Amino acid sequence: MKNSVKHRFGDRLREIRERKGVTLRAVAEKVGVSESLISQIERNRVSPSIDTLFSIVDVLGVDPDYLFRDYRQARKVNIVRSDERRTVVTEGVAYSQLSVLHEFDNEYAIEAFHMEIDAGGEKGSSDYGHPGMELGYILEGKGELVYGTGTYPLRKGDSVSFSSDIPHVLRNTGKGRLTAMWVITPPRKLFFRE
Fold first, then answer.
1. What secondary structure letter does DSSP report for 17?
2. Which fold has domain 82-185?
3. Distance from C-alpha of 160 to C-alpha of 88, rounded to nearest angstrom
4. What is the model's pTM?
5. DSSP 8-state code for residue 13
6. Which stretches within the chain are classed as H helix?
7. What one-character-per-residue DSSP string does 45-94 give?
8. How many CB atoms lie under 10 A from the CB of residue 177?
9. CA distance linking residue 164 with residue 129, whole number of Å
10. Which residues, 6 or more positions from 120, have their beta carbon under 8 angstroms from its beta carbon?
11. Alpha-carbon distance 18 to 12, whole Å?
């Protein structure tokens, strides 16, 4: 019969227990489970409940991060190649994709893009905002951020961050193109999910 345990902590738990010279029986008694269960967990025959796992970790005096580090380090890295970057153009503003979004609803999700605004053009709304935060970095050109009742001039090398819930407009006030790198959280979903 095939072992169905997906996440295998047993080897690591056994190694720690043996290195510390603690018996199966001692761990079982302190955790409040059978010695047989601890043995099966160590041999990756069964998957422990989260409470049992944390009790074992506590008894062995191990940081739980130590058990999960391989899973954390194995996460996917998303790359947007420069020649594969998607671009959306709307009302004189070109948005080029810098981030790949797989989980829009993740509380830490961000959307990043390279933005080009034609002379005299603008992005945003003076009537309404939206939930979240924004951060922008001006790469080229000259512009201004109209934020609520305030106006803030921006030029090459400037960065700006603000809460998005107040009406805001980024306007190109120069003669050439205004280019910027922009990050928004939570994502506005400018680019479709991969």
1. H
2. Jelly Rolls (2.60.120)
3. 23
4. 0.62
5. H
6. 10-19, 24-31, 35-42, 50-60, 64-73
7. SSPPPHHHHHHHHHHHT--HHHHHHHHHHT-------GGG--EEEETTEE
8. 16
9. 6
10. 92, 172
11. 10
Give the 3-state secondary structure of residue 132.
coil
The DSSP letter of residue 130 is -
pLDDT digits (tens, 9 = 90+) for 22-43: 999 999 999 999 999 999 998 9
Structural domain spans, the chain: 10-73, 82-185
The H or E element spanning position 99 is none
CATH architecture entry for 10-73: Orthogonal Bundle (1.10)
Q: Is the peptide bond before 153 cis (omega within 30 degrees of 0)?
A: no
**C-alpha distance from residue 28 to each of 34, 56, 62, 95 (Å):** 6, 8, 16, 58
Of 90, 142, 87, 133, nearest to 113 by C-alpha is: 87
Tens of pLDDT, residue by residue over 60-106, are 888 887 777 766 555 677 888 989 888 989 888 999 999 877 665 67
